[in-house]
Design a protein that fits this description.
By secondary structure, the protein is mostly helical. It folds into two domains: about 400 residues, MFS general substrate transporter like domains (Growth Hormone, Chain: A, Up-down Bundle), CATH 1.20.1250; about 50 residues. The chain is built from 19 helices and no strands. Helix 3 packs antiparallel against helix 4. The longest helix has about 35 residues. The radius of gyration is 21 Å and the shape is globular. The N terminus and C terminus are likely disordered.
């Protein structure tokens, strides 16, 4: 979402109210597809492992190949959309995503599946940043734009929570490859809707691609997450691991130096001078890390340790999806009326409570306790997304909203990748009867992520809506 959105107006004629909300609905459909695909694979991982003959470490790459590429390219894709047209890039992203989904469904081996998932991430990177830019561009009124952003963030959060439920149903009926086949009709429908309803728009001034920054960011993310996944195999203090730590640190340091010196950086580091923005970015990492840890540990625990079917394991996450479904739009409404602080406090409290419920369970824990924990985590997740997005873009002019949203979306995907890597590392090489005990540090991490949202709430702005400062150049 690095789009440079013209302050106050779309690049074309103003749209009517019905057309504006139709544009939001079309973009939300596409974002629902991206969010579902981030988590729908989780419930099918045991089946994929059996079908392709791989272990937990290989399965972590199936998820993170998609998430890492998506996180790495989000901002560059937004810059491309500014230059070549948002609708054009959006449609290209849909096509790439759909074709890669077909390749995933047909993949005969783990290596080809991981490669196809990476290409899926390329397509998704063209959708996630451009969707918010299109929505903001179509909504000239500040309060209407605040409501639209809240709905957009809520749909994305809901889609990630609903992924395991949808995946479990598909796998039970058609096998694990169906979680990729299902994308084809959705992509075709989205392409038609985008062509009919979404107007073309561009940034007021096309931004240059920051290739050095892009390369360094990708290196830092991939090496950092890669060593988390491979750490149990290579050893955390092995020469290979130490080399990875050094490469990640060097790439991160070089990235910061490059970005500070560029006139059009990939990430405007000046935004991090605003405590609300910096805390919202870290909060997005924490929320999505907590969700990813919860979903992967749940999948492995219920299917491997307790012998549940994919359908039953997916159904067990229904309370999580229900909590997110009910609370996400409520959170958007509260954020628009009262500001982000109260929803963030609710998000932190429920997430921490859900994590604590799962710290003690063993192989024979009662189902009601499990479902209650998932419900609490779902409620926390539902309350989190809208206020985090608002906190990131609140107080910024529309010309900066796309940039702030881009960094926040990147943070979400980084959190997802880190969460999958941590959960995979905890479960790697663990016998099924030891999964409950091995997963306890992961649930403590979920609890800590919830508690961290209290700090984010304290740093957030109190004002509802979006109130840009007088100067569009003030970060």
């Amino acid at each position: 979402m690095t789009t440079t959105i013209p302050a106050g107006a779309a690049s074309g004629p103003a749209l009517g109210a019905r057309r504006r909300w139709t544009v939001l609905a079309v973009c939300a459909l596409s974002m629902f597809l991206i969010g579902v695909d981030t988590t729908i694979v989780n419930v099918g991982l045991p089946a994929i492992g059996r079908g392709l003959g791989t272990d937990t470490r290989g399965l972590a790459w199936v998820v993170d190949a998609y998430t890492l590429v998506l996180a790495s390219l989000l901002i560059a894709s937004g810059a491309l959309a500014d230059r070549f047209g948002r609708r054009r890039v959006f449609r290209c992203g849909l096509a790439v995503f759909g074709l890669a989904s077909l390749a995933c469904a047909l993949a005969p081996s783990l290596g080809l599946l991981v490669a196809a998932r990476a290409v899926q991430g390329v397509g998704a990177s063209m959708l996630s940043p451009v969707a918010l830019a299109i929505v903001v561009n179509a909504m000239p009124d500040a309060r209407e734009r605040a409501r639209a952003i809240g709905i957009w963030a809520s749909v994305f959060g809901l889609s990630m929570a609903a992924g395991p439920v949808i995946g479990g149903s598909l796998i039970a009926a058609f096998g694990w490859r169906s979680v990729f086949w299902i994308n084809a009709p959705v992509v075709v429908g989205a392409l038609v809707l985008v062509a009919v309803f979404v107007p073309e728009s561009r940034g007021q001034r096309a931004r240059r691609l920051d290739l050095p920054g892009q390369l360094l960011l990708t290196t830092a993310l991939c090496v950092s997450v890669g060593v988390l996944i491979e750490g149990p195999r290579i050893g955390w203090a092995s020469p290979a691991a130490l080399a990875c730590y050094a490469v990640a640190a060097a790439a991160t340091t070089a990235f910061a130096r490059v970005e500070v010196r560029r006139t059009e950086p990939l990430i405007d580091l000046r935004l991090f001078r605003r405590p609300p923005f910096a805390s919202a970015v870290l909060g997005a990492v924490a929320v999505f890390a907590a969700l990813s840890v919860s979903l992967l540990l749940t999948t492995l625990y219920l299917q491997d340790a307790r012998g549940w079917t994919p359908l039953a394991a997916g159904a067990a996450t229904l309370p999580l999806a229900l909590g997110a479904t009910v609370c996400a739009p409520w959170s958007g409404s509260l954020t628009g009326r009262l500001g982000p602080r109260r929803p963030l406090l609710l998000a932190g409290g429920f997430t921490a409570a859900g994590g604590l419920c799962m710290v003690g369970p063993g192989p024979d824990t009662s189902v009601p306790l499990l479902l209650s924990a998932y419900l609490l985590i779902g409620i926390g997740f539902g309350f989190a997304n809208a206020p985090l997005t608002h906190t990131a873009v609140g107080g910024l002019p529309p010309s900066r909203a796309g940039v702030a949203g881009a960094v926040t979306s990147t943070a979400r995907q980084v959190g997802s990748a880190v969460g999958i890597a941590v959960a995979g590392a905890l479960a790697a090489g663990v016998a099924p009867d030891g999964l409950a005990r091995a997963s306890r540090p992961g649930w403590l991490l979920v609890t800590a992520c919830g508690l961290f949202l209290f700090a984010v709430a304290r740093a957030s702005t109190k004002e509802p809506g979006l109130r840009p400062p007088r100067s569009a150049d003030t970060p």
